[in-house]
Batch of 2 targets.
Target 1
Amino acid sequence: MGNNRGLDRLIHVDPSICHGQPCFTGTRIMVWQVLELLEAGISPGEITSAKYFPRLTPEHIQAALHYAAEQLKHREFVAFSKS
């Protein structure tokens, strides 16, 4: 994952865990779950609280955002048709 200050150690992809979805290393917490919470306006502090995922740290949240950005950087896009 490029210039990531070691964030790649926090995310793991294994076909035998969560059907190969990117997860936080040592957990079954999927990266998309954190990204959806952020999209919903949940703060990183709340995501890492007992209410959601107390095993995660602010560094995990940063890793999720970095992972998403890296995935978008390397994709080819097709424009939606305007109808």
Note: Residues 58-73 form the longest helix (16 residues).
Target 2
Amino acid sequence: MNRLHVLSPGLLTTVQDLGRFGYAHFGISASGAADPLALRAANLLTGNAENAPALEMTLTGGEFAFDQPAVIALTGADFSSGLPLWQPIQIRAGETVRCPRALNGARCYLAVRGGFDVPLVMGSASVHVMTGVGGRPLRAGDTLPIGDAAVRLPRKPARGIPVPTQPACLRVTPGPQASDFGDELYRTTYTVSEESNRMGIRLKGPPLAASAGQMITEGVPLGAVQAPPDGQPIVLFVDHQTTGGSPKPANVISADLWRLGQLRPRDRVRFERVTMPAALELLRDREEWLYSL
């Protein structure tokens, strides 16, 4: 069996797929890839189903070796590997792949043809970093078996790939408490805090006005923009809690969730309001691009 050997794991490298669903009532969010677009593209480029387990590297990548020849794809941020991005790459037996550091964006994905043959927990291979559900981040000396679950031939290089921009524009639809707020969320450029993690993207800037009165705790979705008591917005991320008592003026649209995954500390962020029909149109455009691969 072909295996990937972890020579160096980087800062935070985990196995991720598109997440586990149906467990929010147990307090377990879906987790999954922080940039789902890049993970899906990496899998499609190598001939896998889009939900196959792949590696997610954060800010600094790892060093990996393969027992046997393999076909891989690197998508997302450029981690200065020296290998071409967003296309299938043939790897020789014993060859080492090094991804030292991010030159742009925050996360790079490494998919291998056949996927990683790792155990599923609640139907998913994703590592929920904050709780340990699904495993732990990779360590030096770990090995991952490579499966044989490819579903088609590797594809041609991707065109029109998404590129992170500065400041990042996050398009949003109104949240359930939008009427409690004015327009200050949309007039300000925020800075991503170093305290951000997979639970939430914490932003720094002029505080949002607090919502009047007390709010009953309610369910919260991925991409919800919360206004905590200090008024500094938090965008709920892939390992987010499933309930919360802070008002939510907005929610990041599905077509822009990949942008959240590529934000890194000190990046600048602004918000733009869109209608629900516009959000659906943007999602359709993104899906059409993905399935053109």
Note: The radius of gyration is 19 Å.
